[in-house]
Design goal:
The chain is an alpha+beta fold. The protein is built from 3 helices and 17 strands. The termini are far apart.
């Protein structure tokens, strides 16, 4: 018992110096710029959230402005701030735009029960609509019946609680004007009776523009793809997103969007026109 006590005491003593230095510095050292090389730094400001507040600081670390919210803030060209809505269900079920004084000027809450927004979002200028819109990532529920009908291997089921990411676009009136879903671009080599079967003499490797619904060792499940980041290329009118599966995907927004026709746009995005334009990451995921 004595030996065990001594060993435990020594471990605590050894850890205390490092912990004390880091903890003491965190609590007592003022927030400040430690180093700046003005010959090699971009002129500008730094925006970051902390504990529900967003801070804007200059290169010298001087506080320029704060907003009364701070989860994943995006500073817009107008000077307004776009962030996750404070009253969003589940903590990330909607978005709001606030002005310089933190007053809400726009908000959107995802009320469809089968959609769960998460992680990244962006404000873009939709050239075809000639207005600003907001795009965001949302997990969308896939039922067991849908999964089996799409050729997911029954041996890996049931697929209760399965989800696959979608990218949703809403206008400033809160109307969904476009949507793209990974599930619509699945391919499989399990069930030849399904429309998305690879076909005779073909394999998954012949379809790099689609996602294998029966990834080896990674059957469809809750939060299956877990996409994190979302960005938009206005010159090409394309969207890129990244997945913890180890891949990034580029998809066509411009050629799958029909102005004034949300249903037509969603249908077009679900067609082969919405297949991946490009993917980068683990080529084994599509047999390359």
């Amino acid at each position: 018992m004595a030996r065990k006590f001594v060993t435990t005491f020594l471990v605590i003593v050894l850890l205390l110096p490092a912990f004390s230095v880091l903890g003491f510095e965190t609590l007592t050292v003022p927030t400040e710029v430690r180093h700046i090389d003005r010959s090699d730094v971009y002129d500008g400001y730094t925006l970051f959230p902390s504990r529900g507040t967003t801070y804007l600081i200059d290169l010298d670390g001087r506080l320029v402005h704060t907003w009364d919210q701070g989860t994943n803030p995006k500073l817009l060209d107008s000077g307004n701030l776009l962030d996750v809505a404070r009253n969003a269900p589940g903590g990330n079920g909607g978005f709001q735009e606030v002005d310089w004084n933190s007053s809400v000027v726009w908000s959107y809450i995802e009320k469809r029960p089968e959609y769960m927004p998460h992680h990244d979002f962006n404000r873009i200028f939709d050239k075809k609509l000639n207005q600003f819109t907001t795009i965001y990532i949302a997990n969308k529920i896939v039922t067991n019946a849908q999964a089996i009908a799409a050729g997911c291997d029954p041996a890996n089921g049931p697929y209760d609680g399965a989800q696959m990411d979608a990218i949703v676009e809403v206008d400033l009136n809160g109307t969904v004007v476009w949507e793209w879903w990974f599930f619509d671009h699945g391919i499989q080599d399990i069930d030849a009776t399904k429309a998305n079967y690879v076909g005779a003499g073909k394999s998954i490797s012949d379809f790099p523009g689609k996602i294998d619904l029966n990834l080896p060792g990674r059957p469809l499940r809750r939060d299956w793809l877990h996409c994190n980041a979302l960005d938009y290329n206005p010159a090409l009118d394309q969207i890129v997103t990244s997945s913890v599966h180890g891949e990034i995907y580029v998809i066509d927004h411009g050629n799958t969007f029909i102005p004034g026709d949300p249903n037509g746009s969603i249908a077009l995005a679900a067609s082969s026109a919405g297949d991946f334009l490009y993917r980068f990451g683990d080529p084994a995921r599509y047999g390359r």
